[in-house]
Amino acid sequence: MRPKISILHTGFTGLGTSTAKTKLGGASVILPAWAKSVLAVIPQVTIDVPTVSESVLPLLEVESNDVSIMPYQVLVNPLNAVLGATVGPLNLGNEKYAMGAPVNGGEQIDVYMTPLVANTAAPNGGCAVVVSNMPAGHKQRHAKVGTLTSSGTTASSDVAGTKYNFSG
After folding, report:
1. What are the helix and strand counts (H, E) for the chain?
2. pTM for the model
3. Quick count: other Cβ atoms within 10 Å of Cβ 86?
4. Which of 115, 103, 19, 24 minimizes the C-alpha distance to 62?
5. Which of 5, 112, 115, 135 has the CA that lies 20 to 30 A from 53?
6. At a CB cut-off of 8 Å and minimum separation 6, what does 73 contact?
7. pLDDT band at 36, cuts 50/70/90?
8. Per DSSP, what are the bridge partners of residue 30?
9. How confident is the model at residue 12 (pLDDT cuts 50, 70, 90)?
């Protein structure tokens, strides 16, 4: 059998201006019938109207009732704050997060993104899901982000000079 790899995309979804968990694409990602593994996820985030000195710090979660993948949470590469509001930063998904989840094909997975800091303007999130017709070349990986705390302010407020700590 020849190896086949496909990239499915959730579609970009507005994440709002709160720290609410949002399902990307508004629907489940349905894996192709030939899929035998979910190799990786590649999160992407953008903001159309950036606010001066305000970063975008999202968390990506992958869930499924069909596939044993939970827990799977990763921090998305953040968008740095900008000095002026005339540039639209984009994280093109440079970070790939390995999963190696075995599947039978046809399952549904749900991909969520949660801003860890409430932004003044709503960022957009999307995620590429990489699938293959071959088993992954490594054991299945699980990931979980612990508790977010910060020094000097509440964890959901973006204040210059604040240090954020994750534990767990």
Report:
1. 0, 13
2. 0.83
3. 9
4. 24
5. 112
6. 59, 60, 61, 62, 143, 144, 145
7. very high
8. 108
9. very high
Tell whether the torsion through CA atoms of 17, 23, 24 and 25 is positive or negative: negative
Tokens 């709160």 appear where?
A: 18
Contact 47, 124 (CB under 8 A): yes
List the alpha helices (DSSP H) in the chain.
none
Q: What is the three-state SS of the chain?
A: CCCCEEEEECCCEECCCCCCCEEHHHCCEECCCCCCEEEEEEEEEEECCCCECCCECEEEEEECCCCCCCCEEEECCCECCECCCCCCCEECCCCCEEEEEECCCCCEEEEEEEECCCCCCCEEEEEEEEEECCCCCCCCCCECCCEEEECCCCCCCCCCCCCEEEEC
